[in-house]
# Entry
Amino acid sequence: MRASVAAGLLALVTALLLSGCTWLPAASEPDGTTPAVDHEVRVIEVVDADTLDVRMPDGGTETVRLLGVDAPETYAENDPTEFEGVPNTRTGRACLRTAGENATAAAKAHLADGTVRVRTDPTADRRGSYGRLLADVTVDNESLNRLLLARGHARLYDTTFQRRDEFAALEARAQAAGRGLWACR
# Structure
């Protein structure tokens, strides 16, 4: 019995590798980076402003988390302390809930065509803590990640990635202008 299970598992792994399966972890390069994923994919569902489900070129599905951004939650309680200057009050939480709904609506409008390019960052983790693919999502060469920050629909998720400084500057400008969720301050 164990031999047949092992043989079946080996056959499955081999089939996945030969099919070019995109969700298997890639080997690191000598400099510690991970080769980037860069695919045109079809959006199946916009879960919320910073999370979407997509159909990969190999037919598999992935949940993609936008790299470097964190929008207010729409399906869970928001913690105002995660959003600099937003008061930890009922009013602050309600404002963040509305901001999250607005951010999700903006993401859905931006992704209306349903075809996007998903690119991972070779200097960032490939997967987040929930196993989601961390990526920059672009439509017509415009980054949704960047757009959400610039319009104040999201905050910078402070982690290591190539465009971190650019994203921090976008967040700072949105904060200064009181755009989007920053009006909750």
Confidence is low (pLDDT under 50) at residues 5-30. The two ends are 62 Å apart (CA to CA). The chain is about 30% helix and 20% strand.
